[in-house]
Design a protein that fits this description.
single chain; 670 residues; alpha/beta; Immunoglobulin-like; TIM Barrel; 8-stranded parallel β-barrel; 6-stranded antiparallel sheet
């Protein structure tokens, strides 16, 4: 293999390094060598461009590059730079340049030379870019804060279980013709208050406030590759193909050509939600890049940031590649990036896409770093992968390993499929469709922690309690992926009436919103959102993906039911127990062992009240014996409220088919 020598003055002691192009096979071992990690990895805090009083400092980590130039352009479209600076080799594999302040408000690219191969990139640490993210842009972000942006904060989150998370795509919220929102499909759509549909029911931001959710999880808002930001109106994508990790996506901005527009408008979105009492969670996709070879990572340090085998990308993401979080500089990049989003944009939490690809140690370091600047940050992710990874599962933060990092949660697919049926087999129903799966539902009710009354041999995908505390269990029945809840229930219950499907849907999220752990709602589920059977709408039309605000009016009774449920969860702390010990002590299952019926009591840790919660997933009414007491009914098949709907002193109650009941007493019961 051809070799090259790095001079002592640049990188320390003499080192013989493998020729990196066009053959990548020798790189993996070298990147993982003691020499590389001691001499060619950089731990400084200045890989983001620094705007000083009298100059701009630019530093790029490119240890394998023979030369790096920094090129300035007058426009994003310009092909030829008007000025080129040669960067100086510096410490630990970095290249350094000090620019005059006159360079501000110009576009730029790094020209990275790897022997005979030259690549052009805005660099992994770009924080401001031109249209379609092709060139970086020199701009101090201090100039992009909306007025009072740093004044408004999300309410303090005392514990993850106090959150009610609402997942929504930026475009979906406002694009429908009946949204009454002017900035349709844009960040600024979240800033318009008082909007109503043609029937007079609230939409957009006002709807979120009315519903009572505590956190809004945004599908990817970093700069992604899928859309032409100047393309035809109506192009759509979820955005799970990262291009520039530290820049907002431009297609949601009013003017994608203005590099500052996307930044100011995303900050306006965040400020709007903060002003109205909601936190903002960012969906992050550090597990893969939109492409391997053409990614900014690979252009800068070939193959370093990705896992590989035999010089080829491995693919645990099912998207063509997977990143190598266990490598020192990839770990640093993820942590630096997350800290940037918290400190610059005031993000309140992160949802990690395919978190099971990331190594556990990196995720542990992520939590430590983020809690040092925001102790109440909310962190969770998908505890699985999209394929096989060369890094052993024991070293990755898959669901079964989640207890090793108690401050990070994972999506609970056991309760998801226990409630509604198998996520990938449309015809397979679950508990709310009279198909059993009682133990998987009980497992979710107890927040995935140990409980003596759960039979772990009968759980769908797990044979042990994987959560150390209930805040690690993200309980849900639907998300952007796969069928909507209503579409799934319709597919699994052919021939059932719309009224029956409505009852099943209400029962499904009644279980979620009363379970121990963190409840997670897919936008529109509260008015029976349909995507017309599209199970993978990542690039489908607005007709499929838009939140249909007219449908809210048609199902306003369901919306009111959800509103009451969320209020109940907030009103009664027993639904939000903090520890496994509390759950074991205060939650007790009782009643008949019927596959389609679950009932339990939930005692207030302070002894002020006892709740009785019952779920009937069967197609027939169910009569349940209850302890003798004065009971206030807070939820039944039709209504949910923090005030009593009706009261009873009877020793039994009857649950209608596909329904729930919640009762409360302040009497002492055994």
């Amino acid at each position: 293999m051809a070799e090259k020598i790095f001079p002592t003055s640049v990188h320390g002691e003499l080192a013989t390094l493998p020729k990196i192009l066009p053959n990548f096979e020798g790189l993996t071992d070298f990147y993982d060598s003691e020499y590389f990690n001691e001499n060619l990895t950089y731990d400084g805090k200045d890989l983001f461009i620094q705007y000083e009083k009298d100059h701009i400092q630019v530093r790029l980590w490119a240890p394998m590059a023979s030369k790096v130039n920094f090129q300035l352009y007058t426009s994003a479209e310009e092909k030829t730079p008007f000025l080129t600076y040669e960067m100086e080799p510096s410490e630990k594999g970095t290249h350094l340049l000090k620019l005059p302040l006159m360079a501000i408000n110009h576009f730029y690219l790094f020209e990275v030379h790897h022997d005979e191969v030259v690549t052009y990139t805005p660099g992994p640490y770009a924080t401001c870019v031109g249209v379609n993210g092709e060139k970086g842009y020199l701009l101090s972000l201090k100039e992009t804060d909306p007025e009072n942006f740093r004044t408004y904060k999300a309410p303090l989150l005392e514990n993850p279980v106090d959150a009610v998370v609402y997942e929504v795509h930026v475009r979906d919220l406002s694009i429908h013709e009946d949204s009454d929102i002017e900035a349709k499909g844009k960040y600024l759509g979240f800033t318009e208050d008082g909007t109503r549909n043609i029937k007079g029911h609230t939409t957009g931001l006002s709807h979120l406030k009315e519903l009572g959710v505590t956190h809004v999880q945004l599908l990817p808002v970093f700069d992604f590759n899928a859309l032409d930001e100047l393309g035809e109106d109506g192009a759509y994508n979820w955005g799970y193909d990262p291009l520039n990790y530290n820049v907002p996506e431009g297609s949601y901005a009013i003017d994608p050509k203005d590099p500052a527009s996307r930044i100011k408008e995303l900050k306006s979105l965040i400020m709007s939600l903060h002003k109205n009492g909601m936190g903002v969670i960012m969906d992050v996709v550090y597990n893969h890049t939109y492409d391997g070879v053409t990614s900014n990572f690979h252009k800068t340090v070939p193959l370093y940031f990705h896992r590989s085998s035999g010089g080829m990308f491995t693919d645990a993401s099912a998207c063509g590649n997977e990143t190598a979080s266990e490598r020192r500089m990839m770990r640093k990049f993820i942590i630096d990036s997350l800290l940037f989003w918290v400190e610059e944009y005031q993000m309140d939490g992160f949802r990690f896409d395919l978190m099971g690809i990331h190594d556990t140690e990196t995720m542990r370091e992520i939590e430590k770093a983020l809690r040092s600047v925001k102790p109440d940050i909310l962190l969770y992710g998908e505890g699985w992968t999209g394929g096989n990874s060369p890094l052993h599962e024991d070293l990755r933060l898959v669901k079964r390993n989640i207890s090793q990092v108690p401050g990070i949660g994972a999506f609970n697919d056991d309760i998801r499929d226990g409630i509604k049926g198998h996520v990938f087999f449309n015809e397979k129903g679950g508990f709310v469709s009279s198909r059993g799966q009682r133990e998987s539902v009980k497992f979710g009710i107890t927040g995935a922690v140990y409980h003596p009354q759960v039979n772990y041999r009968k759980i769908l995908y797990t044979d042990f309690p994987w959560a150390q505390n209930p805040g690690q269990s993200i309980n849900y029945v639907s998300a952007h992926d796969n069928l909507t809840l209503y579409d799934k229930l319709e597919a699994a219950n052919k021939g059932k009436s719309k009224e029956v499907l409505k009852d099943m849907a209400k029962l499904a999220n009644t279980i979620v919103l009363t379970s121990q752990g963190v409840p997670f709602l897919h936008a529109g589920v509260e008015f029976l959102r349909t995507k017309y059977g599209d199970h993978n709408s990542y690039r489908s039309s607005d007709k499929v993906n838009a939140l249909n605000w007219s449908q809210k009016s048609r199902n306003i009774d369901v919306v009111q039911y959800y509103k009451g449920l969320i209020a109940l969860r907030k009103e009664y702390p027993a639904f939000r127990l903090r520890t496994a010990e509390e759950i074991g002590k205060y939650l007790s299952f009782y009643g008949p062992e019927d596959r389609n019926f679950i009932s339990y009591t939930l005692k207030d840790p302070h002894g002020f009240y006892t709740l009785l919660v019952a779920f009937n997933g069967g197609e027939n009414s169910f009569k349940l014996r209850i302890p003798s007491a004065h009971w206030d009914v807070l939820l039944d098949k039709d209504d949910a409220d923090i005030l009593p709907l009706w009261s009873t002193k009877e020793t039994s109650v009857t649950l209608k088919p596909y329904s729930a009941m919640i009762l409360m007493t302040r009497d002492s019961i055994s």
